[in-house]
Amino acid sequence: MIIEYIFRYSDVVFEIRIVFFWHLCYNHPQKEGGNMIKFRLKVLLAMNDMTQMQLSEKTGVRQPTISAMCTGAAKHVPVDVLDKICTVLKCQPGDLMEHIPDQE
Questions:
Q1: Alpha carbon 55 to its chain's center
Q2: Could you count the other beta carbons within 10 Å of the beta carbon of residue 63?
Q3: pTM reported for the whole predicted model
Q4: Which CATH class is domain 2-100?
Q5: DSSP bridge partners of 37
Q6: How many angstroms separate the CA atoms of 86 and 80, rounded?
Q7: Residue 8: pLDDT above 80?
Q8: Does an H or E element contain 79, and which?
């Protein structure tokens, strides 16, 4: 897993590698004509050394829901699902997603 490799190096290398990893996960073209919410769940899972299946088992959230959040295919996510994920990952809802405004 890429995060395990990153943690073995100095802080400088870690920052360079995590930006590269972040770029790989979130450098997707923006949809035409609208604001976008991007989920960062894939990055949080990697940082917690956890798989989608492990998160599913710990939260009780269906694995396809977690997969949809990781791939950006989720159209809506219930608040109770966000609560369960935040509880297990020890994070805030804002850590799970970001708003990408229109590029005008």
A1: 12
A2: 13
A3: 0.66
A4: mainly alpha
A5: 99
A6: 10
A7: no
A8: helix 79-89
